[in-house]
Design goal:
The chain has about 240 residues and is an alpha+beta fold. The protein contains 5 helices and 17 strands.
Amino acid sequence: MPNANTHADFVLPPPPQASVAVHNSTARFPVRRIICVGRNYAAHAREMGRDPDREPPFFFMKPADTVVDDGTTVPYPPQTRNFHYEIELIVAIGQGGTDIPVARALDHVWGYGVGIDLTRRDLQLQAREQGRPWDWGKGFDLSAPIAPLRPVSEVGHPYAGRIWLAVDGALKQDSDISKLIWPVPDIISICSQSMVLKPGDVIMTGTPEGVGPVQRGQVMTGGIEGLGEIRIPVEQGC
């Protein structure tokens, strides 16, 4: 039986609630978990050595507390020499459910935003080659920067729009969210067949082609048409 005792005493102070800022609001969106979609743009799947026409969608997770606010300077993470950016459309779930039909999936969306899936690519590829989980390459500290979310009441449900990322002003990724292999309604429906979606779940929907490394002292900027922009510097360090 799930442990839902919200009135229990704890032997340690509970960790702070992870959350994402909301555009034009002092209130924040609480994050329960982060579900990520792998290789959801055909050109990116090909640049990663995969065939998008043959593979169904697959998923991996990031801990909720990897969330980073827009404008935060992130450290260059340990144990990697190949630190990568991946710009992504973010979907924030506001209504839970299971076995959600595609036709009703968007009813469960609270809002949308812009995020960057930061990746220790060398650790990810090493794990892939060894048939091991990607956690060390994807779920490390501060690896999920997300700009302020925008509610559906403000932006509707975007089906198309430019998605881009630049490093120190040099454009690296430039595509359109209409090129998602599995659009948002499909992603929500497929996820809900495997687990119960609940309010506070955040979905990172995949990145287009052009992923690559970012170095100490560089600044990542990116955005999605109609959903705003994000700016994340990497600390200087040595």
